[in-house]
Amino acid sequence: MFKIIKAEFIAPGIKRFVLEAPRIARKQKPGQFVILRIYEEGERIPVTIESSDPARGTISIVVQSVGKTTQMLNSFNSGDCISDVVGPLGKPSEIEKFGTVVVVGGGVGTAMAYPSAVAFKKIGNRVISIVGARNKELIIFEQEMRAVSDELLITTDDGSYAKKGFVTDELRQLIESGRQIDLVLAVGPIVMMKAVAELTRKYNIHTVVSLNPIMIDGTGMCGGCRVLIDGKSQFACVDGPEFDAHKVNFEVLVQRNAMYREQEQRSLAEYQRSKAAPSSVNAEHEACAGAPGGTR
What is the CATH number of domain 100-257? Predict the structure, then answer.
């Protein structure tokens, strides 16, 4: 069992959890993730580690309610327990002194990009961060990104906050202004990462994206997270999750991620109906009493 030390919504449908997981906290590096199973019969879901505190033995994750399991997880509160947390998994981000690094975060992807932005800045890179979301309410980690960035640019699709437009609009302006850009890291929805890759390809700017395809075991054994990189199959869980954006076949990624969409929607609808029923019992919430939190 892994105890939730703190849980709070930071935007509509987006919740930040601080989990007791000392072994993971000691080993976690930027770009790595964990796989959660919130109760014994539940599905496994991958979640990027936002930050860790080895001294306190905790890790922090940010979860957006999208399907059944993430909606269930976001109903958990401080003091509840998660059945299984496995990690840290995946290869860490390639953190070097590149020069000027542009970190692009779309939606909840901003929380995933944040630890890499911290690491890039710490070793002396100039960090320009671009954060975007559909509207003002969904902008997250603004202050955190501002604290580790030499410049912070914010966009909203509807213009309700900062500049109206997309993150690629700001990135294009940076490039066309003649600014030296040595690396772009983009984390967010597939359509956003694809658009960033297509833009930077024209200017031959090295670009990295963090992929989050369907995952099951997170160890490369099941093959569920297969992605096509430079025409060859690789596994996001062990070969990634970060890849050269210009080598990613985004069309295949979109197709694979949509394979179970109908089943996912049906499962979510059934769960929402069960929660609305008067006799509904929150059986998925694990009791923490006597649980040896953070043992994996």
Answer: 3.40.50.80
